[in-house]
Amino acid sequence: MKKTNALISLFILLLTGGSCNSNKSAESKSASTPWTEEELAVSVPAFHADSAYRYVAEQVAFGPRVPNSTAHRACGDYLVKKLTQLGAQVHTQDMDLVAYDGTLLKARNIIGVYKPDTKRRIALFAHWDSRPWADDDPKKKNRYTPVPGANDGASGVGVLLEIARNLQQQQPELGIDIILLDAEDYGPHQSYKGAHKEEFWALGAQYWAKNPHVQGYNARFGILLDMVGGENSSFFYEGYSESYAKGINRKVWNAAHNAGFGSYFIQEQGTTVTDDHVFVNRYARIPTIDIISTDADGGFYRYWHTVKDDMDGIDRNTLKAVGQTVMEVIYREK
Ligand code: AHN
Ligand code: ZN
Fold first, then answer.
1. Which residue's CA is the nearest one to ligand 1's atom 11?
2. Which of 24, 40, 60, 113 has the greatest CB tally within 10 Å of its CB?
3. CATH assignment of the domain containing 165
4. 274 close to ligand 1 (CB < 6 Angstrom)
C-alpha cells in the first residue's frame, strides 16, 4: 500500500516536472547546497543596511534623476565622488543617446573598478537614472510627473555603494567592477502610439555592452540589481537570466539560502523582464542575471512607475538580504 502511494507520487512528480506547488515539501522548496570547506573558510564582511539606506536617500534627495536635468547631473557627480572616496578607480562614459522619441539624452555611465590588474572579475550593475514619467500611477494627473525612483533605480545603486565601501576595507580574490548604468528608464510613455521596442529601454547598458570601459573587457559573470529595496520583496528566477546564466541564478539563490535569506529568494521561476542585463548578455556576452523584485503574480513593485516610489517604500531588511547575498557570492568566489 505504502509502496503504491510512493510510486503514484513519483509518477505525479515526473508528470508535473516537480513543479506542482501542493506537492512540494517545505524542505524541497528551500533546497540548497552547503558551502564547501574552502568557501566556508572565507570571512565575508557584514553588509550594513543603514549605510545602504543612507546611500539610497542621498540619491533620492537630489530629486528625480531624469537625463538632461540638473538633479541628474548633480547625482552623477555625487556618484563619481562617492566611488572615488570609496577607493575605486573610476571611469566615466559620457554619451549622447537618442531616446525612442528622438530626444537627445546627455547620459553618463559611471564605473568603479577594484583590483584593475586582476583578470578574474565579477561585474555588478544597477541603473542610476530614474523614470521621467509616473505613467503607471493610479491618478491620471500624475502620469507626466517624474518618479522619485527610490526603489526603481536608487536602491540598486545604494546596495552597490555599500558593497564598494566593504571592498575598500577588505578585497575579495576577484576584481570587482561596480557599473552604474544611465538611461535605463527612458522607455516610451504608456500613451506612446508607435511600436514599443525593447531597444528603447536600457540605453546606457546597450552603449556599455558595445563599448566597455576597458578594451576587451570580460568578467566571469554579472549581477544586475533592480528594485531591491521594497518592503516584502520577493525575488524569483527571472526569465532571461535563466536562459543566459542559469548557473549564476543557482549560485546566487543558493548563497541567499545559506545566509538565511531564503524567504526573499524564492527558488522558482518568475517573470521575464527586459532590463539592462539582456544587452549585457546579448552584446558583451557576459552571463548576467537580474535580481529584480516581482510578486507571485509576476507584477513589479507596487509603487513601480508611480509618484509613491519614494523613501517610505524602502525597507532596510530587503537591502540587507540582497546586499549580504551578493557579498556572500563575490567574497567566496575563487
Ligand atoms: C519594461 O518595462 C519593458 N522593462 C522594465 C525594466 C525596468 C523599468 N526596470 C525598472 N524600470
Ligand atoms: Zn523603471
1. 185
2. 60
3. 3.40.630.10
4. yes
The helix (H) or strand (E) run that includes residue 180 is strand 175-181
Distance (Å) from CA 185 to ligand 2 centroid: 5
**Residue whose C-alpha cell is 549560485:** 251
Q: Return the minimum-mean-pLDDT range out of 82-91, 193-202, 231-240, 290-299.
A: 290-299
- Pocket test residue of 125, 201, 228, 291 for ligand 1, highest count of atoms within 8 A of CB: 201
pTM of the model: 0.91
- Total structural domains within the chain: 1
| 172 alpha carbon – ligand 1 mean position (Å) | 31
| CB of 290 sitting under 6 A from ligand 1 | no
Domain range spanning residue 12?
Answer: 2-332
The reported pLDDT for the residue numbered 195 is 93
Q: Record the cell numbers describing residue 145, joined without a space.
A: 510627473
- Span 237-249, average pLDDT: 98
Burial class (CB in 10 A: 0-12, 13-18, 19+), 68: middle
241 pocket-lining for ligand 1 (C-beta < 6 Å): no
* pLDDT computed for residue 295 by the predictor: 74
Which residue reads 543596511 in cell numbers? 49
